[in-house]
Amino acid sequence: MEPFRFVCPCLFGLEGILAGEMRRLGLQEVAAENGRVCFRGNAEDLARASLWLRTAERILIEVAAFPAPTFDALFEGVKAVPWENFIGRQDAFPVKGWALNSALHSIPDCQSIIKKAVVERLKSAYSITWFEETGVKYQIQFSIMKDQASIMLDTSGAGLHKRGYRENANAAPLRETLAAAIADLAFVKKDTILCDPFCGSGTILIESALRAKNIAPGIRRRFAAETWDWVGRKPFEEARAEALEKIDPTAGFHAYGGDIDPGAVRLTLQNAKKAGVGKMIDAVCRDVADFSLPTEEAVVICNPPYGERMLDRPAADALAKKMGEVFRRAGAKKIYVITENESFETLFGRPADKRRKLYNGMLRCNLYLYFR
Ligand SMILES: C[S@@+](CC[C@H](N)C(=O)[O-])C[C@H]1O[C@@H](n2cnc3c(N)ncnc32)[C@H](O)[C@@H]1O
What we know:
The protein is α/β, with parallel strands linked by helices and 372 residues long. It has ten helices and 14 strands. It has a seven-stranded mixed beta sheet with strand order 2-3-1-4-7-6-5. A seven-stranded mixed beta sheet has the order 10-9-8-11-12-14-13, with helices on one face. Helix 4 links the parallel strand 5 and strand 6.
């Protein structure tokens, strides 16, 4: 496969963390933009990035980028792409995407123009007039931002946050990519001792354990590009074999979860086992009011319930106050709390040493970081 520019959308606020991950993987021409980070690479880079990137939502190949102020420009720009190099005569090629601040703003119209342009191109390449679309799927994704079109192929299939361990979640789970980013911001290391007293389905504990043990987050799943003959399974098989060798058996990391809901505790333990980190995670049914630290230097990372999605607002506020009391009493020093509650610091009783704006999907949150 020739080198391509890859585009990786991510949650707003995570661009710097994702760019750092890419650089550590040795990827080239890493460039962070708003809500996405790009790199340049070949099939081997794609396979390694698919397996290892913890904070990317998906990986797209950019096959064309051009100004598209009109439908004609969009049609011609798409038709100029050598689609026959990618898509076979039996293959499926659905189109989806979005447009923002652009003259072309009707998504269904853009979709059908792009589809028509690809069909036109393939018709003359294959000398056929009808496409069955029963073969391998090539999801075409477009974005039009300020009249600039980007035409891409989705190499991931299911979003990269779907690691394969969390089929079941509680009512308000944290996205896996966001939990991984918080573990990065909290400097989770191979020997970290971690507590999450509101563990829910266990996302923070599991993403931290994967990071501590150097387990590639995508090691248990498949990717759309593996079914494409011009990419092939080989780079992915090699990347999986390499990832297995890189797991650190010496990591002393251990995590302790608690939750008031016994169903959540069961879920955490099940998910941890599925993720291959069951031995590194304990979870018990416990009210945060009874919180204690397993060791003095343990790190607390948590995502307490908030009024919008769980509990009513006064109850969520009372819980934030309680957290201030019990964490102080337990002597916790390193505390990382992600919440939508703008009054958290006042209720907790202490201004954070640092705060960082993050998005859990579309929900605007803050991560409050305490170091002392
Ligand atoms: C926002 S969810 C956490 C989601 C979790 N981060 C995940 O990704 O699945 C909050 C959790 O706090 C638990 N909870 C509510 N009140 C609690 C309390 N007083 N003590 C401990 N856990 C509590 C809920 O049962 C829920 O699972």
